[in-house]
Amino acid sequence: MATDEELVGHVAVGDEDALRELLHRYERPLAHFIHRCTSGRDVEDLYQDTWLRVVRHAPRFDRTRRFSTWLFQIAVNLCRDWQRRRPPDPAEPVELPMTADPVTHIERRIDTARLLDVLPLPQREALILRYYHDLSEDEAAAVLGCPKGTVKSRVHNGLARLATLVRQRP
Amino acid sequence: MERDGHAAPAGTGHLRLLAHAADCEECRRAPLPMREIATLMDEAVPDVDVGALSQHAFACARPLLHRRRAGWSWQLAAGLLLALLPLPVVVAYDAYVLHLAYEFLCGWVPAAVAAYLVLSYAATLVLLFASTYAAIPLLVNRQPVLE
């Protein structure tokens, strides 16, 4: 079975099957990453742009690097650009009342789906990569383009913020 | 949870939080409710149709791939043409050198031995040419990566 890095080499010369295989391997983690970074907004556009960049820059991809790191770096950059462009969102998930009845249970689901919205993007990115994608601090630092210590402090600050949400819940 | 496209075992995120708490000085000083945070984060499951997203992304990338493939075919054809252009001159020159070598050797060894030596050398040259031309498509294929 071809490695991700070999497949990028094939994509560089226009191999459709190689792109299909890469899409198949990374569709779930990448889509979920973008969804969590943007709280589900503009996921389709950002997902599509990420893959277009992969195809466009595949000839310049350094095969000694890991493809997954490169892919998520592209996604992180696109999410940051998106964050700079978008208007501020008025939603405040912490304000929603939590009770046991079914209607508020749905509200609670919506609330948790937008849970990470309360975090600034740098904290959100670090926490998503560490928690959901199970990356080590070194790997997350490579994706985010920052030192390992910064990843650690961002994760801590993000967790501290989520802890205040947990304590506010009934 | 996922890691590089593969499902990670359930609870890995929680373990990561515990590992962070053990390693983080601030967390040790003021412990955070990691289990509750993990429960909250596990509830946040993205509702997204990844298959449809991939189909759409592939459809958008297809024209770009076609252009890339067409460009590569032209590159291959141009590479082969450039490599083949000097071939007649090279073959004629080699034939002339082999003829000279044969005549020179005939003065020293019997004609049959001279013919054997010259033909052996000619066979080596043919093999060398064949390997060189067979390598052209491979080199063109690797070129995007080397760029």
Structure, briefly:
The complex is a heterodimer of chains A (170) and B (147). Chain A is 70% helix and 0% strand.
Write up this protein.
The complex is a heterodimer of chains A (170) and B (147). By secondary structure, chain A is mainly alpha-helical. Chain A folds into two domains: 1-87, Rna Polymerase Sigma Factor, Chain: A (Orthogonal Bundle), CATH 1.10.1740.10; 98-170, Arc Repressor Mutant, subunit A. In chain A, 70% of the residues lie in helices and 0% in strands. Chain A has eight helices and no strands. Chain A has helices spanning 4-12, 16-38, 43-57, 67-85, 102-113, 121-132, 137-144, 148-168. In chain A, helix 4 (67-85) packs across helix 7 (137-144), helix 6 crosses helix 7 and helix 6 (121-132) packs across helix 8. The longest helix of chain A is centred in the first third of the chain and has 23 residues, at 16-38. Mean pLDDT of chain A is 83; it is low at 93-100. Chain B folds into two domains: 8-43, no CATH class; 71-146. Helix content of chain B is 80%, strand content 3%. Chain B is built from six helices and two strands; from the N terminus they run ββαααααα. Chain B has helices at residues 12-23, 25-29, 34-43, 50-84, 87-106, 111-146, and strands at residues 2-3, 6-7. In chain B, strands 1-2 form a two-stranded antiparallel ribbon. In chain B, helix 1 runs antiparallel to helix 3.
